[in-house]
Each structure stands twice: as structure tokens, then as C-alpha cells.
Amino acid sequence: MKPEELKWIVIEKYGRIAEQNAEEKSCCCSSSYCGPVVDYTVFSEDYKDKVGYNPDADMNLGCGIPTDYAGIKKGNHVLDLGSGAGNDCFVARAIVGETGKVTGLDMTEQMLRKAKENCSKLNFSNVEFVLGDIEEMPFEKNVFDVVISNCVLNLVPDKSKAFAEIFRVLKPGGHFCFSDVVIKGSLSEKMKKDAEMYAGCVSGASEMNEYLAIVENSGFRNIIVHKQKEIKLSESLLSGYSTEDELNAFKKGERGIFSITVSAEKT
Prior knowledge:
Largest sheet: 7 strands, mixed
Helix content: 25-40%
Radius of gyration: 18 Å
């Protein structure tokens, strides 16, 4: 499948999530699209005690809390990649204050509409949401102090191109902090090629060492993995995509799906 086709699958999938009601929003998509239902609560973490948290913006689509490790300061200009309904943007806005600015970038129009509605209710003048592709961002170079992202880069087909863009838009001395899904070991070709599972945060994920190598090869330095957590997917979910040998390898810890929170600097 071509990268552009994968992007359209992700756009359609997350557009559907944006339009789902509160009772439905914890699963990746309707059963007519996905087969096994992916419960995003196995990836997401609890934001409820975070200053700036807005429950209307929390779609339970993250796999960490990148703002906890992002080193955001008052007055910073922060970019959130794949900003969804605005959850991480509003938490970041509480940190940058009135003198800072937060920009959310998302390629799903339905998510952007939801984010803008949430922002309008909060009456924030220093938070904006922009339609765009992470691989070709609609920003000048050297604009942002900090770039954050939550469970999004794993969905990008060309991660080298994405990290090159991140490097371009960051100011010299700026940094990123991402929570993302990675693989330890290998996954079957069937799982890698399954577009529905790709949009469910697993098959699009890179092997962890490869992911960190892309970061380094893009010019970033001082790479730190702040946190990693194994994702315990149900056996019924994995059995739809794995052989018995593969399932046993997962159980033994020889292979696994992890969320990590990683940061690096543009020096």
C-alpha cells in the first residue's frame, strides 16, 4: 500500500473517531472497519490532575503525557503534532501562560473542528489549530521552542521525513518531547500490512532502536527515553494478527509493544 493511501485511511479513521459520541470514543473505529476492537484505554494515561485539562478535548487517543517531560517554559511557542481535539495543547497552554503560544497541527478536518470549538469555549487567544501534514508542515523554519506529540508519529509513513521537518521548524536550541508507540523485536508481515491495525497504533510503529536511530540521523542530540511502558494487548486481539509461535514470543517478552516518552534537542 502506498504512503498516501495509508494517510487517507488514517484520516478517515480518526475523522470517524472525532464524530463519535462519548460512549464510542474509546475504540478505534466501528466493527465494520476494524474487526477486533482496539480499546485505546490500554494506551492512554490519566490527565485529570493536569492543570489546563479539558475533558471535552480528551479523546483517550494518547499513549503518554509528553508535557510532563517536555520542559516547557512560560512564554514558549509550542507545536503539538497530531493535536486532535486539543487535549495536549490546552495543558501546554497552562504552562506557557498568556505570554506564550500553542499551535496544534492535524490533518483531520473533523478533529480540527472539534479542537477549534473547544478553544472557542475556553476563549483562548494564544492557541491556534492548523490543518497540515507532519511530513510537509505549513510553517517557516526556526519557529518553535518546543514540539510535542502524543501517539502520532507511529502513524506517519515516512518517519525520516517527519523528523527532518521537526528539526526544520524548531529553533536552534529547541527540543521535542514525544510519547509514541514502538515495537521491540519484530512483527509479522501480515500485521505490518494490515491497514486497519496500522490506524490502531500498532502496525505503523517502528522498532524501538530504528526509531531512535531516525531521531539521531535527523540531527538531534541528547536523546533521552524518559519512560517506557509495555502495552498489554489482549490475547484475543493479537490472535487475529499472529501465529501461535508469535503469540508465545509476546508472552515470553521476546517481542512487545511499548509506549515510550522520548526527548531530543536541536543543537
